Amino acid sequence: MDPLTPLQRLWRHHRNGAITVAILIVGTAAAWLRLPAAAQGTLWAEDARIFLNQAVHMGPFPALFNSYAGYLHTVPRMIAGLTVQFVPIELWANSMAAGSCLVAAGVAALVFVCSRDIVGWLPARLVLASITILVPLAPREVLGNTANLHWYFLWLTPWLLLYRPRSRSGAWMLGVAALLAALTEIQMAAFVPLLLWRFRDRVRWPVRALFLVGVAAQVVTTLLWPRGHSTADLIGPASLAYGYLINCVMTIWIPSALDIGTLLTGVGPIACIVFLLPFLAAAVWGFRYGGRLNRVVIGTLLLGSVVLYVTAIEISPGTFYDYASMTTQQLANPWLARYGVVPSMMLLALIPIAVTTRRPRRAVAALRAPIQPAVARSLRRVTRLALPWAASVVIVALMLAQFAPASTRRSGGPLYAPQVAAQMRACLTKPTSDVLPLAGAPASAWKVYVPCSLLESQNASAPKAP
Fold it and tell me: Which segment of 77-81, 193-197, 281-285, 363-367 scores lowest on mean pLDDT?
């Protein structure tokens, strides 16, 4: 006789689906709440000048296929196109931020689904999903705007490519996600070697085929319309290493640049290395006691965290990344780069993977001989139960402690909605063909130009005051 009630059987059958939907809903709300009100209502960089601007003047569908900086940005352009088409103009900044939060939560949900082959313990999978939304550095410049949405797809890619779908329909759904992600971020090509993992498994082919279609489209795009090269000097190895420790390691533990600077000037680089040790220890543990797939994932995350940071810095070098040459005064308030977001996610992921390896019993096998059996059993129990729970609690607590940032690069505005109201009034005395600017952050060059005809049509459709 089945001891489970109908409700329990229903939960067991649909548990993963229900949790996935919950992650999408809660993750979207959490991502939105992590943004200060000013950031929610301020357009960021390419959101204004490229994605919205081209959607307005070219039309949402033609703009979808435009390249920018050497590659395609399909998902940001989709959000911009839907915003221009269906959202009142005064809410465009909020719409771009909300759409970005929704996609980030979607990535979190996919990480939860796709990590089940690597991490069998449900709480650890929830921790991996939460890293997507709660990673401390994200609100500064990445979270809540489409200009930097592509970074989330780099975090998703290893999980997506190494996962074995449970059904053909699921494989095609994940394949569409892989296609859209690859059509948004050209650096996903760096993960092509992961396709060699069990490449004969036909269930994986839809995901991998559509992933390769997206990568091929990006390669063709960058060959036809290449990105301009920076004229700045490349960053030296010492500064790359120091910058990696500051942006990818220290930001996990310490919330602000000033606090990081205080530690750097007081203790020096050794402080960064100390904060790196738990992640290195987790990697060693996972390599030693994990299975083959665990080792592949841990190696990918370690190498990926370094390669993604170094590549991003060398493609767009600047003196503010030359940390090894900075004076003590400059290091007291170091520049924190968005390039540290995904590498720090990858470092954080090492811990839940390591402490939930499938063969932790080997870690205590060597200790059984010289100690009492009861003690050995207790040690094994701690290793299997207490360590994963303790590590999960520490990671989540560390991220939640930095849930609301003190400031972001959009905290100073300029707020978008008041500009719309002002330009609507200005259009009352101008021809409908006139085009007026609406500014975004971080500088005056980032603007969306909107014709008075559009502003007046929005104004005419607004409800009149009684």
Answer: 363-367
Q: What is the three-class DSSP state of 447?
A: strand
Are 157 and 195 in contact by the 8 Å Cβ rule? The answer is no
Which residues lie closer than 8 Å to 261 by C-beta, 6 or more apart? 331, 332, 333, 334
Find all residues with CB under 8 Å of 408, minimum gap 6, and list them: 35, 36, 39, 139, 140, 141
pLDDT recorded at residue 405:
83
Alpha helices, H only, 237-291: 237-244, 251-253, 257-266, 269-289
Whole-prediction pTM? 0.91
The three-class DSSP label of residue 163 is coil
User: How confident is the model at residue 364, as a pLDDT?
Assistant: 46
Percent of the chain having pLDDT more than 70? 89
Domain residue extents for the chain: 230-359, 416-461
**What does the CA dihedral 12, 13, 19, 20 come to, rounded to 10 degrees?**
160
The DSSP letter of residue 44 is B
CA-nearest of 143, 145, 147 to 50 is 147
In whole angstroms, give the CA distance from residue 64 to residue 77.
Answer: 6
Q: Say if residues 459 and 424 touch (Cβ distance below 8 Å).
A: yes
Is 70 exceeded by the pLDDT of residue 294?
Answer: yes
Strands 447-451 and 435-439: antiparallel
- Say how far apart CA 106 and CA 116 lie, in whole Å: 16
Q: Is the dihedral of CA 9, 10, 13, 15 positive or negative?
A: negative
Return the percent helix, strand and coil in the chain, to nearest 5: 70, 5, 25
CATH topology of domain 416-461: Actin; Chain A, domain 4 (3.90.640)
Q: What is the pLDDT averaged over residues 267-289?
A: 92
Angle between the N-to-C axes of helices 205-224 and 150-162, in degrees from 0 to 180, rounded to the nearest 10: 140
**Which helix (H) or strand (E) is 123 found in, with range?**
helix 122-134
The 10s digit of each residue's pLDDT in 374-417 is 666 666 666 666 788 888 999 999 999 999 887 889 999 899 99
Contacts of 102 (CB under 8 A, 6+ apart): 24, 28
Alpha-carbon distance 190 to 194, whole Å? 9
Average pLDDT over residues 68-73: 93
